Each structure stands twice: as structure tokens, then as C-alpha cells.
Amino acid sequence: MATTPFTAPRPAEYAPIPKPLKRRTVKSEIPPGPRSPLLTLQFQKDTPGFLRSARDQFGDLTSFFLGGQLFYGAFAPEMVHEVTVSKQHSFIKGVGFERMRKVLGTGLLTNEEPIHLRHRRLMQSPFHISKISSYAETMLALTDKHISNWRAGSDVELGPEMMSLTFDIVAEILFGTDISEDTERVQKSMHIAIDRIERTMLPGLDRMDSWPIPYFRKFQSAADDLNQVASRIIRERIKDGIKRDDLLGILLEATTPEGERLSESEVCDETLTLILSGHETTANVLTWVFSYLSENPKYWDQLATEAETVFAHRGAEDFAAKLFAAPLTAAIFNEVLRLCPPVWVAPRRALEDVELAGRFVPKGAHVLVSQYVTHRDSRYFKDPDEFRPERWSGDFEKSLPKGAFFPFGAGTRKCLGDQFALLEGRIIILEIARRFRLQLKSGFPKAQPRATYRPKGSVPMRVNAVRS
Ligand code: HEM
Questions:
Q1: Which CATH class is domain 23-465?
Q2: Residue in 84, 127, 415, 422 to alter for ligand 1 test, most ligand atoms within 8 A of Cβ
Q3: Tens digit of each residue's pLDDT (9 = 90 or more) over 415-457
């Protein structure tokens, strides 16, 4: 039987995973933390809430046992910076990523060194800021196409709408293909995959993936289905034989400094990685943005004015620069990335003994840094649970310590598509604000944190005219 990402073994080139530390085998003193017998239940029920209350109760470095294995929560900005940047080589990606590999194979998000950097170098150019700017017109045209059937007085399900819009943008720009016919299929499979991936924050659960139980069977068929879509995109491109300079063209032509080419299955993994990481995250932020705008309607008119100013530069060379600089849109996007970071936790595993802010963390420990927790730290963000875009005015972002705000991660594992997402986000917010007012139909959405911090349900909205 052919190997699929779901059944592939961990690549031999990766560093070996250190043995987990069990209660009995921990030799060093560990920091205080929650020890309740109901801990696993509390963790599973609301992981971001669990981590936040652990920080509130036990401070910046806390420890707990999950599935019998030692975990650290490291929440101070200095620790976040060490884990993601200055001491990043002491860590590999942790729980959740092993399981994510079953869907994304050896794509950039799940890959480890030495393969990761080799691939990352090959994939940088379509994400270079000069190239990103040239995507603005396509992003705007696709946004217009999507909202062209919205009518004042009608209702939309904003969650799925944003998913299919961001999906089409990634597909068209990075892969030069219209895969709108696959949108529903990809979304369905991705929904299952993302749901199951998060559950593996509990170590050991992945052993059950081969069990003949529908819950796990569905995970495998979702993973296989997604891989079939990616394989088809590649096969079609190879068949049409036209060389293009989009990401897929680059991946198919690329050679490493050692003169190796990426295999078809590696290209497939990278394609799927980009499709998944490139649309679900941005779609979630946008759904949260419009939910906050519905609750804070005073921003609509200001955004519409900002849109008129920025769109006056449409077609001009500085259009993307004007979009990036739009102050209110930038502030709203940042504030939502702070409150509802799509990637809300970054699990890592210590490859060696290491110190975080001078405190000892032993080899083998699971280490969780969390955007959700650190972004709601009142030492850096006054009234942290409040939606206040104004806090981002002036030099506020620059005044923050490193590691206090890291929605796109940092270091060599920093998001490859951050500028892509920022440009796309601004265009969609401004274009919708220019033409409509959206109003939540059934209250502010609850969060459903999985592999991403997604709003629960489809988030129905009433579409209103600009001046009703
Ligand atoms: C608002 C939207 C987005 C957010 C908040 C976000 C956030 C992140 C974060 C936090 C990571 C690092 C994960 C870790 O350290 O464990 C990451 C990695 C990544 N993201 Fe994004 N992302 C977004 C949009 C995108 C887009 C639009 C693309 C591509 C078109 C993309 C592609 C990637 C890739 C390929 C990686 C892996 C990078 C590597 O390890 O070398 N992301 N993203």
C-alpha cells in the first residue's frame, strides 16, 4: 500500500524525540502548578482558559502533568522570546505537531531540521514583500466577486463565507488555479482534521489513530481526502506543462543547493500546508473582526472613510503601501490578533536542559507558549479583555517587550505568510466596510479553540446597507 502522510514514519533525518518525563522520573525541582485530579478534564474542556488560570495562579512558569507527562507553561515575554528565537535550537515542535504531520506530511509547518530550512529557503520568494504587494489587485478582485451577491437586508453565514474567500485567494495566487469546486470538500475534511489534531494535546492519544473507531477512521479519511485534492492540483499543473512563477511553479522547478529537487510527495505536502495554513487562520481573524465591529459599530464609518482614501490609490504603485499603512484597519486587525490569535498555543519539546528567564527546564519536558495567555497579560495590555484598537496608536507596538505580542510566532519558525495575511486582511476589511454594515444575528460568537482559535458555529450576520 502506498505511504500517505497518515501512515508515514517520522523522517530519520529529524532529531530523535527525547523521552518524556514522568512523575517518577523527574529528578529536578519543578515549578508550582495545578495538580487537581480533574486536571485532564479541565485542560480538555477549555485549554486556553486552563493555561490562563494556571498563569494567574502560579506565575510565568508553571508545571503540570498531562497523560502522566511533564508540561511547562512559559508565559513571560522573555521566555516566549527564548523558546521561539534566542534558544529555539533547544526545542523541537511538540504535541499536536506529530499528529498534524499525519495530515500535512513534511510540509513547512510540521517539518523539522534539517529538512525545514532547506524547504523554507526554496519557498521564500513568493512571500517576499515586493511580490506580496503585487497580489493586492487579485485579492481585491476576488473579494468583490465573493461579496457581489450580498444584498442589503439579506443574511450571510460569515464563517463559511470568509473560509471560502480566503481559500480562493490562496489557491489563485499561490497555485494559479481555481479550486472553488473543491472548497466544500476541503472545508469539510479540514474541519475534521483540525478538530482531531487539537485533541492530541493529550500525549499518547495518537496511538489510537489506527483503532477501528469512527472518530479516528474519519480523521484518516479526512487526511487522505485533503492529500488527494493537493495531488490533483499538482498533477493538473504537470499535465498542462506551462511554466509559471507562482509558488507551485517554484516548488516544481526548485533545486536545493545540493542539486536535489523536491519529490512529488514533498511538493504535495507543501501545497497542502499552504492551502491549510494560508486560509483558515485569516478567515478566523476576519470572522472575529466583523463580530467585534458588529458590537462596536462606531468604527464602521471611520473604516469606510479610510477605505475611500486607500482605494483612491488602486492601480497605482503605492496601493499596497497605502493598504499596509491604513491606521485604523491595522489597529483593529492587531487588536483581534491579540484577543483571538488564530494560533493560540505553540507546543514545543525541550531537546536538552535549558533555562528560561534563568529558570531550569529539563530535557524532555513539553513546553507550551501561548499567544492567548501572553496577549492577555495586564502588565503589557491594560484591561486585557477589552476590545480597544486605540491601544495600538503611536509607538505602542514598538514599546512592547520582545515576545509580548507574537500572533505570527517568531524565529526561524515564524509564519511564512504574515505579510500575505496582513495585506489580505486589510483589503477584505476595507472593501466590506466600504460597501456594507454587518450585524450579528445571534450574539457574540463563543470560541471553539481547536488547532486554531475559531469561532463556534457559522456566525450568521445580517447584511445592512451603508446608510440604513
Ligand atoms: C492571520 C493569519 C495567520 C496567522 C495568525 C498565522 C500564524 C502562524 C504562526 C503563529 C505560525 C508559527 C507556528 C509555530 O511556531 O508553531 C505560523 C506558521 C506558518 N504559517 Fe502562518 N499564520 C497566518 C496566515 C498564514 C498565511 C496566509 C500563510 C500562507 C499563505 C501562512 C503560512 C504559514 C507557514 C507555511 C508556516 C510555517 C512556517 C515555518 O515553520 O517555516 N500563514 N503561522
A1: mainly alpha
A2: 415
A3: 999 999 999 999 999 999 999 999 999 999 999 888 789 999 9
